[in-house]
Amino acid sequence: MKKLTLLLFLIIFASALYADHHKGDRGEKRVKIWEAKLKVDLLELKGPPSVDEMQRRRLDKLSDLDLLINSGKYDGGELERLKNMRSKLIDSELPSQELINTRHERRIELARSKIQNWNRMNNNHNHDARHRDKRDRNQWERRRNRHKR
Question: ∠ at Cα 17 (11, 22), nearest 5°?
Fold first, then answer.
């Protein structure tokens, strides 16, 4: 009897943990969506970076690549890749302010569409209308079939 009680308790406890685990997933998704909205708002408020900021970022990337190359940790193919990345970065031209602005707007649009897609996916889990339609269809079929007997 004790074993049966213990087994029953374990089953109930495991199902509660399982239900609680799945409950937390929705909350985490909401937090991720909220964080994404914050990032979009920050992008809009800050505006696009200037050409000077892009130049500073480029110099920072070059100094980081130089540090990695001169560290001695990389050799062979990895070192060649780092050198190629550095040479491509040096050879590339700085974008104009118009290009930076269009990239910034495009980034905001993509982030908004991603948030909308997440919201649509989360709202699709609410199948009330679909279940109601299915239930109504089933009721009508049962009524129709009841008279055919």
Answer: 130
Q: Are the beta carbons of 48 and 99 closer than 8 angstroms? A: no
Task: Tokens for 78, please give them.
Answer: 């990895």
pLDDT tens-digit readout, 29-46: 788 888 889 999 999 999
Token pair belonging to 25: 């997933």
Name the amino acid, one letter, at 28. Answer: E
Give residues with Cβ within 8 angstroms of 55, minimum separation 6: 94
Residue 7, CA distances (Å) to 4, 17, 50, 60, 64 in order:
5, 15, 66, 61, 59
Phi, psi of 83 (to 5 degrees): -65, -40
* Rama region for 133: left / alpha / beta (φ>0; ψ in -120 to 50; rest): alpha
Per the structure block, which two tokens stand in for 45?
């408020």
* 0.85 surpassed by pTM: no
